[in-house]
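Proteins fold reproducibly. Look at a concrete instance:
___
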Amino acid sequence: MISRVLMRPLIVAAAMIGSAAGASASAQSGATAVPASSQAPPAAKPGVKRVPIAKSVFGDAGMIVNARDDGFIEVAAAGPSKTILLQLRALAARAWVDSTARMLRARPRRSNTPRTFRSDIDEPGTSGTMAVTRKVTAGESEYALFFSDDPLGGFTIPIEKSEADVFVAQVRRAVALSAKLLERADSAKPVGDSAVKAKPAPRRPARKPAATPKPDSSAKKPVTPPSTAPKTRTPA
């Protein structure tokens, strides 16, 4: 059961998602646009559907993963002193999930020289980054999650191998559901007036069977000639 202390990061992460949705609505209502230099994350369009995937606590950080029906997923991470919300393209997140899963399954050669493996993904149009790192020393592995929305800073969350597998599985579920939601949203969109509709091929009229001519009632019937056979007279 999640304690009250660990629930705080989740609440903060949920507030980040809610504030992002509110900022999107206010921008559409005519609010001042955020300058591009501030590198704000791409705001979701009004009416975007969100489906919660998971709410988890890893160490001292809370994580929220959501799927959306516009081709994006959301990952909110609330660390000890900072909260970061990332809006990632589902296609890019799918590739990240595959590469991260391969990194976690890999069996590097045993060596006393520490080696660090890293699988990261960037938020489009911003400096946001999410990564899973694996440091291998003498056959022993250490795992961590890294989140950043600033090139000069971020925070790292040490995790166990099992927690890394759980987090990757959560993102995988969000990607799969986002693809389904996007497909449903596209199929539900009405066809515009400018869309060219295929004209059905003209149907040929069915041929009617030829009518049987009716006999002409005005035609003369053939006259039967009188019989020429001799008549037999009976003698008186």
Remarks:
- The chain has one domain: 4-29+42-188.
- Confidence is low (pLDDT under 50) at residues 1-5, 22-41.
- The chain has three helices and eight strands.
- Strands lie at 50-58, 61-68, 72-78, 83-89, 115-122, 129-137, 140-150, 153-159.
